[in-house]
Amino acid sequence: MYLDPEAASAGAPSRDVVLVSAIITVSLSVTIILCGICQWCQRRLGKRYKTSLETVGTPDSSRGRSEKKTIKLPAGGKAVNTAPVPGQTQQDESDRKTEPRSSVSDLVNSLTSEMLMLSPGSEDDEGHDGSNRENLGRIQFSVGYNFQESTLTVKIMKAQELPAKDFSGTSDPFVKIYLLPDKKHKLETKVKRKNLNPHWNETFLFEGFPYEKVVQRVLYLQVLDYDRFSRNDPIGEVSIPLNKVDLTQMQTFWKDLKPCSDGSGSRGELLLSLCYNPSANSIVVNIIKARNLKAMDIGGTSDPYVKVWLMYKDKRVEKKKTVVMKRCLNPVFNESFSFDIPTERLRETTIVITVMDKDRLSRNDVIGKIYLSWKSGPGEVKHWKDMIARPRQAVAQWHQLKA
Length: 403
Prior knowledge:
It is found in: Cytoplasmic vesicle, Phagosome membrane; Cytoplasmic vesicle, Secretory vesicle, Synaptic vesicle membrane; Lysosome membrane; Peroxisome membrane. The chain is α+β, with helices and mostly antiparallel strands. It has helices at 5-11, 15-56, 62-69, 90-97, 103-118, 211-214, 378-389; strands at 71-72, 80-81, 138-146, 151-160, 173-180, 182-188, 199-207, 218-225, 233-241, 251-256, 269-277, 282-291, 304-312, 315-321, 332-340, 349-357, 365-372, 395-400.
């Protein structure tokens, strides 16, 4: 059968028209799908970015709070945040672990921060006028008078918070008891080995003293650190006039120890500088000069020189000494000595400086000493801290010589 092409085209769409319509329909569908995917992605990415900003950028974030309240000092001396930070991803943790660091600078910074934080010579040890106020501890004792037996009773009970006088960071304290002005007759407690809070509980009797004479005396207690091989080091003293005490019954006192009257002030001062070089593992000690040294010779002068000991823990490692300055109480030395000290040993290191009087015919006399470390007295600790805080710089300071 024959069909007219014009009639057929008028009744149904041609093949080309159908093909174009199909292509347009498919294109529109793909466009709609792609737009939906893009909007979904934008919403997801925007939400994640917003969450990241809320976690990191806000001042009240949980990251800031956890750093504030969970810091502690472990053995290494660094401040470490031990609490997990909310919102921190695994990728953040791995990046932090692989961050390159210098092992030498790490060790120096660790020890520096530890010594600066743990050393006892902080600003709290200074008075309002900026002067150093050394804590020498305190002592508890009792005193009373027996009228029937004409006997004064003194009981030495205990002491607390005594300063360390030995290289091991402790002391061997004992107490001398006087009734001033009599200095010839004294009584002593036992020595308490390696103890900064000793308990004695010892009773001493001064018999045959009429009450009229007792009230004219001053009870004087001197706490000393026992030393087997050299002179005992005075720690502190307490004096109490007995006419100000009710002796009819035993009275108990807590008294702060004060510097001994024959102590550092009359022995003179020494100016020295310290220079710490962490990369070379060394400390340079420069003995500069001294002033107002105590006269040790009959002629009213001295022949001073200075010994410098490097101590590690309680062991002597190395000794250096200056030349002798003849007949001089204000000598100028200007001599430098270098000591090799590994950084990890700084905390256990002490530099002992002793000013001596040279004597040709007898034993040399000790004029005074200085102990430099992170656990010495306030003045010494300040010098040590300044040295650590200012590496490769010579830090100078005057020090009072101590017995």
